[in-house]
Amino acid sequence: MHKATFLEGTLRFTIAPNGPILIKAGESSGVDPVLPDMQFVRSQGKIYIPGPSLKGVVRAQAERICRSLDGEDLQRKKQQQRVNVFGDNEPRVPLADNPLGSGTKYSGLDDMDYSSGRAIEDMKLPPDANRTAIVYRRSSFVSQIFGHTSLAGRARFADAQSNDLKPEDVEERNGVAIDRIYGSVAVGPFNYEVVVGGTFTSRIDFKNLTLAQLGLLGLALRDLAEGRVGIGFGKSRGLGRVKVTFNEMALRYPTCTLNNGLSLLGGRQICKTSELAGLGAFGAGEAYNLPSDDTATIPDGLSYVEDEFMGVELKASDDTQVRAVWRACMPAWRREIGL
Fold it and tell me: Which PANTHER family match (predicted)?
């Protein structure tokens, strides 16, 4: 199923500091007294925000959302649904992993010890045709998007590059670390470099997501855009707040054409032209436990167009339209969490 591409998309967005931000470089200033103790990460002399830093923030927020909404009743219900189809060996799987868990002792909210990567490794599955499907459906909902040690992620975050930083957008500040017991200075004073202006542009490429997964990705990015989540160093000190503008989202269906609706090249209809289709709508993922009802109403002002080469595309061209696509995915997300 996931060796083919049924749905792929690109989200382009702009990040602007809403206060000071610092993504620390791995190396220190060394013996050079001119350089600050903590420098912003650079590539070829230019400040940038690494893609893994963005991915880590978005994934962590997606996990917080899932842990807030997860529960034993929901997990048992989902487990029973899989048992009815695939047999009694299906484990209970939470919406989000415990990255430090063992993978084998999970028994509810009192013992959140399930780690998808370790659990799959413990199963020692043979390398047959069904292995990929088993790995996918026994992975947590968040890991199905971002991946783990036995499953490749389906969302890729590019570095956020900036070409408009001015000298006054980069400042040097001073700080100290306070001893929590004695209230005196434990480390410092030290100085660090922050960015307070300019913009950074980046993109997220994703493929083969269900509408519920796309909706969760949108929720986490919305929280980042609205300042509920910070990035980088010193978030508890007031650093790390950003503003995010979503510039464009393109959803592409490379195996489809417009024929009285969105249809596969072989002729089978996927959905109406007024509906948005997620991966489950393609009906080829029974072994992956994908939702069969994976369509939503396309927001007003958006429509499919045929690509000039092959396939069909739907494009949201500004922040308002991108958020409208995510709102359209919310019913699928609610079904995923049992609401």
Answer: CRISPR SYSTEM CMS ENDORIBONUCLEASE CSM3
